Amino acid sequence: MKKSVIMSNAWKIARKGQNQFGGKVTDYLSEALKQAWEIARNFQPKQFDSNKKLSGMMTGKQDWFITKLMKELDQQGIDVIDKVPGVIEYLNQGTYGTSKQEASELINELLNMKKAVA
Questions:
Q1: What is the pLDDT of residues 55-96, one digit of tens each?
Q2: Where in the chain are the domains?
Q3: Taking the model in full, what pTM does it have?
Q4: For the chain, what is the HEC assignment?
């Protein structure tokens, strides 16, 4: 919601307060702004879409992090290739054949495996 819409709503709320209780519109503006912001927050809550598709090729940081997690799990005695889905595809495709979305999913799987062991 744009700030101009929030301000318009605040002025409308302030005018209602003036009509109901009397006085100046500016006397009610502070409380009206608080109410307008609350309405805006409730109207459009922030939602983080975990299914958001990432486009493009895998980044260097993702490659580094995947390699780091695979080494850590290997040091703990876990056979990453057999137990974590997506590792074989990652190893076959390489850095340039893996998309950001696939890399992100693989990182989540590796982190879940690491949490399960710890």
A1: 788 888 999 999 999 999 989 888 888 888 888 888 888 777
A2: 1-43, 49-117
A3: 0.53
A4: CCHHHHHHHHHHHHHHHHHHHCCCHHHHHHHHHHHHHHHHHHHCCCCCCCCCCCCCECCHHHHHHHHHHHHHHHHCCCCHHHHCCCHHHHHHHCCCCCEHHHHHHHHHHHHHHHHHHC
